[in-house]
């Protein structure tokens, strides 16, 4: 393997590790700042939404992925391009609902839990922190957010 290719792999791993350490530090600080788990979770939910919006904007700017035509194509792009770009992993897409508006992403390895310890009372449905073999993220289509693209940018 060339040095340049090796540096690219090291850079992605370092970037992923930096992200997970930063996330862990953020959660730790929120736990110190708020007295109960419900308040921590409310803050994480609010922050998660805002970060998600910015990640989508960054992803679209950096990836040159065109507009998805349906939710299945969206799932494919999320799993195969976005997760790979930001976390260095490719989850599998499973458990489609009959209506085609929900699916699960199965993460064999979840880099977000690399530096996390879980309290006994925390509750997860399926997560490697709980001893499960995989982390399962359930996605559901709620609505399309219409954007106003400049003319010629579809």
UniProtKB/TrEMBL annotation:
InterPro entries: Bet3 (IPR016721), NO_sig/Golgi_transp_ligand-bd (IPR024096), TRAPP_component (IPR007194)
Localization terms from the record: Endoplasmic reticulum; Golgi apparatus, cis-Golgi network
Summary of the function given for this chain in its UniProt record: May play a role in vesicular transport from endoplasmic reticulum to Golgi.
Phylogenetic classification of the source organism: Eukaryota, Metazoa, Chordata, Craniata, Vertebrata
Main location: endoplasmic reticulum
One Gene Ontology term, aspect cellular component: Golgi apparatus
Gene3D superfamilies: Trafficking protein particle complex subunit 3
Keyword Nucleotide-binding attached: no
Native organism: Cervus elaphus hippelaphus
A single BP term in Gene Ontology: Golgi vesicle transport
Subunit structure of this chain's protein: Homodimer.
Similarity comment: family membership: Belongs to the TRAPP small subunits family. BET3 subfamily.
Keywords attached to this entry: Endoplasmic reticulum, ER-Golgi transport, Golgi apparatus, Transport
Descriptive protein name: Trafficking protein particle complex subunit
């Amino acid at each position: 393997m060339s040095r340049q290719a090796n540096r690219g792999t090291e850079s992605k791993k370092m970037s992923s590790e930096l992200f997970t350490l930063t996330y862990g530090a953020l959660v730790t600080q929120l736990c110190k700042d708020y007295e109960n788990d419900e308040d921590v979770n409310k803050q994480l939910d609010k922050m998660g939404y805002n970060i998600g919006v910015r990640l989508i904007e960054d992803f679209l700017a950096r990836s040159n992925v065109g507009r998805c035509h349906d939710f299945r194509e969206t799932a494919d792009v999320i799993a195969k391009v976005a997760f790979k770009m930001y976390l260095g992993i490719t989850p599998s897409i499973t458990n489609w609902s009959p209506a085609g508006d929900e699916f699960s992403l199965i993460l064999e390895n979840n880099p977000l839990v690399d530096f996390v310890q879980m309290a006994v009372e925390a509750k997860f449905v399926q997560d490697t922190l709980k001893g499960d073999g995989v982390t399962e993220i359930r996605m559901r289509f709620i609505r399309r957010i219409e954007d106003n693209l400049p003319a010629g940018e579809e």
